[in-house]
Amino acid sequence: MTVRTLPQARTEIDALDRQIQELISQRARIAQEVAHIKQRQGDTGDHYRPSREAEVLRAAMARNTGPLTDEVVAKLMREIMSACLSLESPLTIAYLGPEGTYTQAAVLKHFGEAVTARPVTAIDEIFRDVESGAADYGVVPVENSIGGVVSNTLDALVHTKLRICGEVTLPVHHHLLSVESDPSKVSKVYAHAQSFAQCRKWLDARLPKADREALASNGAAAQLAKQEGAGVAAIASLQAGKLNGLNILASNIEDDPSNTTRFLIIGKQDPTPTGHDLTAVVLSAHRNQPGALFTLLQPFADAKLDLTRIESRPMKGAPVQDYFFFVDFIGHANDEPVKKALDAVRANAAFFKVLGSYPQAAI
């Protein structure tokens, strides 16, 4: 091992920084050339390719020899890709606003900083923005490890023509934020309903008398806490606290430290197989047929497909015994064994729809 003096180490770092910067610039120029190649081939769509990006991130982690962690290496590569992609085709991503929500954090984790993040006020609006072309992609929450599924997202997926193009998993840490500096003075707390569910034990123990008012997002909760001032607090992210100039009265107040939210990327693409894919379908069984659900799911077992999630939702406007079943499994719809299984499921279903096949989250 070479023993360097401090000046020698700094000189070597400066030289490496120049090399890194030169290589990033070279990569960016090639990315611009890729855009021109695609244009000559008649590809006029956006240049974001979920499968390609997932493969690049996995390759970066596979090459990693330390001392940086795989996750850090992947995040660095994500930002380089994001900056280069913005030279090819700047992306607009719709998310559940306002600024400071966990959905915005999911946008930045998946797409990097070099995108235009477009906040909207409801999950339905995210779908409409992408369908209309006002946004290239949308990021929607679908389930939380404590609070369960996000029903608005599942309901919208049944009827949309959009596809699931990717996923993001985000550890969620909640913080009690206020203009106050003394938690004992808090008499009202704003938060999203899911956040109240995720922090119920802490609130019951520390703020049992405080009123709880659910809002559309934690970002909105932080804004109200700032506007209303004394006696009011919000449960939200650190970023929301910084944006609104709020004090941190308590950190990590979620009941489960492993609290994680999963988000879906929605768009108009059908990602190609990567070998690390998930497929999501929604289906319904014929009524009044004993064993109908078992019959529907049997082809998955026959094909030895690993089901990762099964969720039921009542059909809107239908009798209470009619349900949609949302099924996720490992594999891509273009894989031959998966094709055969889906054909068998489709033949027995009253309703059947593939919501998308997409790369599993790399980080």
Blueprint (SSEs and pairs):
Blueprint: H1 6-40, H2 50-63, H3 70-88, E1 92-96, H4 102-111, E2 116-120, H5 123-132, E3 137-144, E4 148-149, H6 151-159, E5 163-171, E6 175-178, E7 188-192, H7 193-198, H8 200-206, E8 211-215, H9 218-228, E9 232-236, H10 238-244, E10 247-251, E11 260-267, E12 277-284, H11 292-302, E13 307-314, E14 323-330, H12 336-348, E15 351-359
Parallel strand pairs: 1-2, 1-3, 7-8, 7-9
Antiparallel strand pairs: 3-4, 3-11, 5-11, 6-9, 6-10, 12-14, 12-15, 13-14
Helix pairs in contact: 1-3, 2-3, 11-12
Element order: H for helix, E for strand: HHHEHEHEEHEEEHHEHEHEEEHEEHE
Count of runs of 4 or more consecutive helical residues:
12
CATH topology of the domain at 270-359: Alpha-Beta Plaits
Label the CATH architecture of the domain at 270-359: 2-Layer Sandwich
CATH superfamily of the domain at 270-359: ACT domain
Instruction: Estimate the global geometry from the Cα principal axes.
Output: globular
Mean pLDDT: 92
Distance between the termini: 33 Å
> What about the largest sheet?
6 strands, mixed
Structural class category = alpha/beta
Q: Give the tally of β-strands.
A: 15
**CATH level 1 name of the domain at 270-359:** Alpha Beta
Poorly predicted runs of 5 or more residues: none
Helix content class: 40-55%
Bin the strand percentage: 25-35%
What are the defining features of this structure?
363 residues, alpha/beta, Alpha-Beta Plaits, five-stranded mixed sheet, 12 helices
